[in-house]
Design goal:
Elements: H1 3-9, H2 37-48, H3 56-70, H4 97-110, E1 122-124, E2 128-129, H5 134-146, E3 151-156, E4 159-165, E5 173-177, H6 187-196, H7 215-231, E6 240-244, H8 252-260, E7 263-268, H9 271-279, E8 285-287, H10 290-302, E9 307-312, H11 315-324, E10 331-332, H12 353-362, H13 364-386, E11 391-392, H14 399-405, H15 423-431, E12 438-444, H16 449-467, H17 475-486, E13 499-504, H18 506-521, E14 528-532, E15 540-541, H19 559-570, E16 575-580, E17 590-598, H20 602-625, H21 629-641
Parallel strand pairs: 3-5, 5-16, 6-7, 6-10, 7-9, 8-9, 10-11
Antiparallel strand pairs: 1-2, 3-4, 12-13, 12-14, 14-17, 15-17, 16-17
Helix pairs in contact: 2-3, 7-8, 11-13, 12-13, 13-14, 16-17, 16-18, 18-20, 19-20, 20-21
Main location: cytoplasm
Organism: Flavobacterium terrigena
Domain Urocanase C-terminal: 433-636
Length: 659
């Protein structure tokens, strides 16, 4: 069968042969035992409903074995034989170019070079799934191959509920992930529902088909590191940045450190992902001995090298040893997946990677105890460094939240706030999000590197022209982005699809997108998929990250994210998504995203202007109402350019009246 025929087939009527479990692939850890005997039967019934009853007797023991062995039913037998990668849009079967674009993006999320656990359909973060099992993937791709522009596919936490009649201006796909009743949004609720096959954790851009590999966060991390050094009034040259995590998102940190121009030490306990990142060029060196690491870092600092070093081991050992050696850390953070602390997101010190995984699956109470003990040591070591002048920030991965729950010494004197700020509170929020700058991204649907180079130039030309008349308040943001896009090709940021990201405000996103659409209309480039990270101005309500600099008491509300996805859906998005969880944990955040196909038409120009304007200014208006100074400036500027925009402005209260 050809690739197109395999896509159109969906779930095969003749069972494929069982697949060999490939040990060379980076697999998800075994999930903990959480289902009762009756619930295991229910999980099996739920899995078998995808298949004709005549196959149930053969599949039942296989699915039962998967559930016992891995804690989930992945249906490995149905994993496709073709290479999993983003192909040119013309390679996909179908009746809708928009649907083909979505197929391209789904396959990119599962590309072996992109996905953290590709055989378990997990893109990043340890549990950020595109689908829960391979039947869902096959059925979704079949639906997309059949869809017309008069239909919409409804996706329920990885399950394709079906194609429904709609219209050309409606989204082609509407995605929800993990949307549970609030009282059932604890970590164990996810474990149980996911094991039953009825819900999944979509992270941010995994379950919304908009992940573009570590590049997606390299830019934001680069800006964070640059502004972190600006905050402490020190040049990045000869500066030391210490952090941890080399997974799907955190793997961007060493590359960002290189671009920023400092020495980066990033610890990781997983040997496979460490060597993958090294082979991809995202880290320069791997060191496995802590004594050798100290010597190597001293040499790098003395010589003012720009180098990224992966320490294959636990980051707590790095913080403690650097303290003993009096090795000064300028910037410190952590990007382990602490939103998922009991299922592989964070590992205890004193145990090998294999020992930890065995403990996690077979003695989860002991594993939790050791993780919390390690968190307390981790925080204590950080405190010693900050007393010497280190600037530490929480990277929005729930490090401070979980450390506080473990009883670590990280609370401020008021015992309400943390000792250390979130990077959004101190850096990204006031410097970027409040002004409307966030992670705008695009993918060249042709798969042609030449198209990517052309779009880079188009974007750079647009930004340079805009900067001539930009107000002083956003000159630094504009300059950083122009520098970024000019170095994008030489930094070799592409992993998977031909994609790019930069931080832009609504004006920049609209002008860049319109320039792309005009270039498509002229035949200069192929079609382009627009998107963004959910970690943005408007899409995400997350009290410990994206909305951590909201101080009017509303940071635990999620109106903004819900309004965002509803508004995008009727303003022209090709697909929309809304998720529970993502980055900081299930039950800790609601986040929404979109995708939009540009095809060179006038209709696409109308859609991009209307949707991108809303997608950013929805968030600015909320931040303005929270009395954020930059957002008040930005929304007033937006109203001056768009007479149909009328936003309620806050009246500021004299603090002296309240004393």
């Amino acid at each position: 069968m050809t690739f197109k025929e395999q896509i159109q087939q969906g779930i095969p009527s003749v069972l494929p042969q069982p697949k060999v479990y490939e040990t060379s692939i980076n697999h998800a850890p075994k999930r903990k035992e959480i289902l009762s005997t009756e619930e295991k039967k229910l999980a099996l019934k739920n899995a078998l409903r995808y298949f004709d009853a005549k196959h149930h007797a053969e599949l039942l023991p296989e699915f039962k074995a998967e559930l016992e062995s891995y804690g989930r039913i992945y249906m490995y037998r149905f994993r496709p034989d073709y290479e999993m990668k983003a192909r040119p849009i013309s390679d996909y079967p179908g009746n809708s170019e928009q649907a083909k674009a979505i197929m391209l993006m789904i396959q990119n999320n599962l590309d072996y070079a992109v996905a953290q656990h590709p055989h378990e359909l997990i893109t990043y973060g340890g549990n950020g799934a595109v689908f829960s099992n391979w039947a869902q993937y096959l059925l979704t791709m079949k639906y997309l191959s059949e869809m017309t522009d008069e239909q919409t596919l409804s996706m329920y936490s990885g399950h394709p509920m079906g194609l429904f009649p709609s219209h050309k201006e409606a989204p082609r796909v509407v995605v929800t992930n993990g949307m549970t009743i609030p009282n059932y949004s604890q970590p164990d609720d996810w474990e149980k529902m996911n094991a039953l096959g009825v819900s999944q954790y979509g992270q941010m851009t995994a379950g919304s088909y908009m992940y573009i590999g570590p590049q997606g966060i390299v830019h934001g991390t680069t800006i964070t590191v640059l502004n972190g050094f600006r905050k402490i009034k020190k040049s990045t040259t000869g500066g030391l940045f210490v952090t941890s995590g080399l997974g799907g998102m955190s793997g961007a940190q060493p590359k960002a450190g290189n671009i920023a121009g400092c020495v980066t030490v990033c610890a990781e306990v997983n040997p496979k992902i460490t060597h993958i990142r090294h082979s991809q060029g995202w880290i320069n060196e791997i060191v496995e001995d802590i004594t050798l690491l100290v010597a190597r870092v001293r040499k790098a600092l003395d010589n003012k090298e720009v180098v990224s070093i992966a320490y294959l081991g636990n980051v707590v050992d790095v913080w403690e040893r650097f303290d003993q050696e009096n090795l000064h850390i300028d910037l410190g953070s952590d990007q382990t997946s602490l939103h998922n602390p009991w299922a592989g997101g964070y590992y205890p010190t004193g145990f090998s990677f294999e020992e930890s995984n065995e403990m996690m699956a077979n003695n989860p109470d002991k594993f939790k105890e050791e993780v919390q003990k390690t968190l307390r040591r981790h925080a204590a070591a950080i405190n010693k460094h900050t007393a010497k002048g280190t600037y530490f920030f929480d990277y929005g991965n729930a490090f401070l939240l979980e450390a506080s729950r473990a009883g670590a010494d990280i609370m401020a004197e008021n015992n309400i706030d943390f000792k250390y700020p979130s990077y959004v509170q101190d850096i990204m929020g006031p410097m970027c999000f409040d002004y409307g700058f966030g992670p705008f991204r695009w993918v060249c649907a042709s798969g042609n590197p030449e198209d990517l180079a052309k779009t880079d130039k188009i974007a750079c030309d647009v930004l340079e022209e805009m900067m001539k008349n930009s107000p002083v308040e956003i000159q630094q943001q504009m300059a950083d982005n122009i520098q970024w896009i000019k170095g994008a090709q030489e930094n070799k940021l592409v992993v998977g699809s031909q994609a790019r990201i930069l931080y832009a405000d609504a004006e920049g996103r609209i002008k860049i997108a319109e320039a792309f659409n005009q270039a498509i209309a002229r035949g200069e480039i192929g079609m382009v998929v627009l998107g963004r990270d959910h970690h943005d101005v408007s899409g995400t309500d997350s009290p410990y990250r994206e909305t951590s600099n909201i101080y009017d008491g509303s940071r635990f509300t999620a109106d903004m994210a819900i309004q965002n996805v509803i508004g995008d859906s009727f303003r022209g998005a090709t697909w929309v998504s809304i998720h529970n969880g993502g980055g900081v944990g299930w039950g800790e955040v609601i986040n929404g995203g979109f995708g939009m196909l540009l095809d060179g038409t006038k209709e696409a120009s109308k859609r991009l202007e209307m949707m991108l304007f809303w997608d950013v200014n929805n968030g600015i208006s909320r931040r303005n109402w929270a009395r954020n100074e930059g957002a008040i400036f930005a929304i007033k500027r937006a109203m001056a350019t768009q007479p149909l925009l009328k936003v309620t402005l806050p009246n500021l209260v004299d603090e002296n009246l309240l004393t």
